[in-house]
Write a structure and sequence with these properties.
171 residues; mainly alpha; elongated
Length: 171
């Protein structure tokens, strides 16, 4: 080994020079990278995403299955609204306005689902024509629901929240 890196003591052990040891310590003590300035907003977005249920069921066109599906959608929207409220105001400019708009979207969607559920519950058993009309009404209500937009899409209209959702895991 080179004499510049160290010296050999009488016991035959290689010893590092004090300067090299200081360089190694300094390298280990390098400051950590700066935290992401969006970290609070990213944490906020992640908490909303983690609490938002995913719906994968596709209903059969029977009154009970459609009613169950509408209840599932309504429950999922209620959970999403609860998660948004529980997360508190987002730590970004105009974040509270984005939250208010998203919660209004959820309220509108809930109203559409209640109307569709009510219409479906009025169909007597065995009334195929009534069921067909109720299914058409439900589909119309669902189209209006999709026009209202996804609450997270509403939140993402805020550029700072959009960036936070893009960086948050699980969103």
């Amino acid at each position: 080994m080179s004499a510049a890196l160290g010296w050999v003591d009488p016991a035959g052990m290689m010893r590092l020079t004090p300067l090299l040891g200081l360089l190694l310590i300094a390298a280990c003590a390098a400051p950590p990278p700066a935290p992401d300035p969006d970290a609070p907003a990213i944490a906020w977005a992640a908490s909303v995403c983690q609490a938002t249920p995913s719906i994968t069921a596709v209903p059969q066109q029977t009154p009970s299955d459609l009613a169950s599906f509408l209840d599932t959608l309504s429950s999922a929207l209620a959970k999403e609204a609860t998660a948004i409220r529980a997360a508190g105001p987002p730590p970004v400019p105009d974040g509270s306005a984005a939250v208010a708009k998203a919660l209004a979207t959820i309220d509108s969607a809930q109203q559409s689902l209640r109307q569709a559920r009510s219409r479906l519950s009025q169909v007597p058993a065995g009334d195929d024509a009534g069921l067909s009309q109720a299914v058409a009404d439900v589909n119309t209500g669902m189209a209006a629901l999709s026009d209202a937009g996804d609450p997270k899409a509403t939140l993402r209209q805020n550029a700072d929240l959009d960036r936070a959702f893009a960086k948050a895991e699980g969103c």
